Amino acid sequence: MTAGRMKFGVFLPPYHGRSENPSLALHRDLWLVEHIDRLGFDEVWVGEHHSAAFENIGSPELFIATAAERTRHIRLGTGVISLAYHNPLMVAERMNYLDHITRGRVMLGVGPGALPSDAYMLGIPLDRLRPRMDEALDVLIPLMRGEVVNAETDWFTLREARMHMDPWSTPSVEMAVTSLISPNGAMVAGRHGLGILSLQALGKDAIGALATNWAIAEETAAKHGKAMDRAKWRVVLQMHLAETREQAVRDCRFGLEQWADYFTNVANLPLLPDDVDTGDFVQAYADHDVAVIGTPDDAIEAIERVQEATGGFGCIMLMAHDWANTRATEQSFELFARYVMPRFSGLNASRDASVEWVMGKRGDWQVEATDATMKAFAKHAAESEQG
Fold it and tell me: Does 21 lie in the same domain as 126?
């Protein structure tokens, strides 16, 4: 179903309520990256937003530079840089610098820009976001490979532009494009042969869109002489895990409704159909199959369901959020690492095989052990008689 060992990551927009200290929230984000690095997560992707309060990291590159000094193994990606807001040479330079100081641990995720309020502040019409991303990506990819680029658009000019240093990674930093329900992200990824960050995977419409968009990406790639790689397909799931479903729901009463209010009333992205009774929103969200609010077994079942629907992918990413308090959030990631990761990584395959082998041989060994014990008694008795 997957290409090689499945990887595991976290998508960190982040989401922080307006009532708390924003500085402490940022430090908690750094703590989270340290925590998941210790737990063995493979990667984390950090967002870029400039308004609406909740998603309060304005520069994923600066966050990554800080997190890189606090971690040992985890790869660090921009999730994502809004290309419509930046001169592509500056993006290339910043990412190449991070590639060098992390010795190849960075990844470049790109998108057009998510919040209309960000584009408004920058004076960019919403219908120019995607065209700008396309124009930037056309030159960013060769720049990241160390090539010389000349380009002229209505918003940037590049003249014999090149990065100041050759890339650390070969041929360049790994790149990926965001994808939601629409096919736009899949088409961009296919045109350039890039990875995909699918930002919503549960729910009837989302699961159906995953397979459809992957097919679109493969078809587009073939038309442009590229090839898609399932190992570079990341799928984001919303989860909070506890030892019981009831405990998971209780945990999420801490902050899920505040998070949902942001999506519904600020970001203008309704989370549940209008006909769903949301008198108890947390329970309704848990029951409506758009997130996993439950146990590690529930997480395993959800991932297997998405695998079956898509034909396989390379990485499961958990959406970082403040649905639960810090202690419960810490435990949720730990439960995932302890009991969900091994199910898909194959790390317990040899242990399982060893148990089966021992169980199959134990009858023979029991007879042999009994015989050895009887011989020992007989030897002792014989020596006692002689003594």
Answer: yes
164: CATH: 3.20.20.30
Q: Give me the residue label for tokens 């308004």.
A: 51
Total domains in the chain come to: 2
Predicted confidence (pLDDT) per residue in 327-348, tens digit? 999 999 999 999 999 999 988 9
- CA–CA gap between residue 40 and residue 42 (Å, rounded): 6
Nearest to 251 by CA among 327, 199, 307: 327
pLDDT tens digits for range 175-215: 999 998 889 999 999 999 999 999 976 766 788 889 999 99
Contacts 24+ apart (CB under 8 A), 244-249: 244/295, 245/286, 245/293, 245/294, 245/295, 245/298, 248/286, 248/293, 248/294, 248/295, 249/282, 249/283, 249/286, 249/293
Eight-class DSSP state of 147: -
CA–CA gap between residue 194 and residue 77 (Å, rounded)? 14
104-to-4, 64, 77, 89, 341 alpha-carbon distances in Å: 21, 12, 11, 19, 24
The residue whose two tokens read 């990875």 is 195
Question: What is the rounded distance in angstroms from the CA atom of residue 188 to the CA atom of residue 140?
Answer: 13
Q: Are residues 218 and 306 in the same domain?
A: yes
227 and 363 in a single domain? The answer is: no
Q: How confident is the model over 69-127, as pLDDT tens digits?
A: 999 999 999 999 999 999 999 999 999 999 999 999 999 999 999 999 999 999 999 99
Asked if 207 and 196 count as a contact pair (C-beta separation under 8 A), the reply is no
- Looking at the fold, whether 341 and 376 belong to one and the same domain comes out as no
Q: Categorize the per-residue pLDDT at 2 as very low, low, confident or very high, splitting at 50, 70 and 90.
A: very low
For 175, the domain range is 7-349
List, for residues 30-75, the tens digit of each pLDDT value: 999 999 999 999 999 999 999 999 999 999 999 999 999 999 999 9
Give, to the nearest 10 degrees, the angle between helix 326-335 and helix 22-39.
20
What's residue 51's pLDDT?
Answer: 96
The predicted pLDDT at position 290 comes to: 87
